[in-house]
Description:
three-stranded mixed sheet, disordered N terminus
Amino acid sequence: MENFAQLCYTGEKEEKVYNVWENALANIEQKTSAVNFLTWFKDTSLISTNEGHIIIGTKNAFVSKQLNTKFLSVITEALEKNNIKVIDVEFKVVSDNKPKVRPREVTASAPTKLKNITKKSLIKADNNGLNSRYTLDSFIIGSNNDVAAAAAKSIIDAPGVRYNPFFLYGGPGLGKTHLVQAIGNALLQKDPNFKVLYTPISDFYSDFISSIQKGKGKEFNSKFQKLDCLIIDDFQLIVGKEKSQEEFFNIFNNLYQLNKQIIVISDRLPSQIKTVDERLASRLTMGGAFDIQLPKFEDKCAILRAKAELQGAEIEDEAIEYIAENVNTNIRDLERELSTILLTSDVRGLTPLELIKSGSTSIIKTPKAHSVSSKQILDKVAHKFGITSKDICSKTRVSNIKTARQVVMYLLSKELSMSTTKIAAEVGLQDHTTVMHGINKIESDLKLNFALRDQIESIREDLYA
């Protein structure tokens, strides 16, 4: 097998290796989802194929780790299909030749550096409500939001055709506003004459009331009829505003009939928002309802790495993993903790990892699992459900008690990282597969059952109060 270093100096052979990797990527794309391919294989390169020892270039250590852990067999198969002998594969971070900034050089006044932002993509607001900083390039795609991100890309390619209306829901601080504003910015980048409006429902309500008071109701309505894309945020706040719902319903129908793109964001499904008209609730989700969930550990690491790179800051992988393990709320809090760590390490003249290991900061709290016992979880859940701990550990299958038991299983797993076997013993079960089923059931229900989500969050607050 020829060495890549030799191939680089001969135009014909250089093209040969280039084509090998391009062909391999084409094979990989067929074996992985579009989101995974774009997330992990973008900006990779084939550095060497010398005697079966493959070296693949990546943009950072986290990508290298993910490729090695999750996609090694797919990569090996793709290379072998292209007649490349594979003995072992090494992933190597390739320098982009950009100067790195040490953490101590990061200051509070340093401007945030966004990737791939050009004059063309710095879209002027023109009263459209969009923030030009929200782009797809700066939106980190992970397993918690990949489906919603894929739908967003389809909307950009063909607005008003697929996923119309596009209803996006999920908890606070998970990136919903970022994603939908990125859609609006991308549509404007494709066509500067495209008429987009982003507005929170509270502003819609205030403007509507003002127009009625001033006798300008028709002007208010006609403003929306000129749009090519309407983005409504915080839709859950429309509760109790019947006249606003009626006006929005009319605007919605008119835009929809004209194949104009409609995007609505909420913290829950329309059917779970009290007083929302059934007709409106049904229409809002007829294009599909997509949720953004809490990021998993790998997703949080990717977000932290990307945010650090955007700020031009260096941060050790161990520090990133520590932050990811200890911030279990949302992306907004994750980014806030990262910024605080970087600034504090700057002030104290330490690297982020040195700061964390020194124990001289209380920014990242001790993992919750260290301060809560299984008995406390059992007692808090029992109290919340109005039953006893003895009921939960009994063999009864009464619906309310069964749900409480599954919540205990879920919290023991998430808060204390207990094994399913140990959880089974805690709740009086003999079969650990029942525990696995119970945990999976709660995880599935949390996607749509907002009452259960609120209930579990309330139990968590009681545990760590």
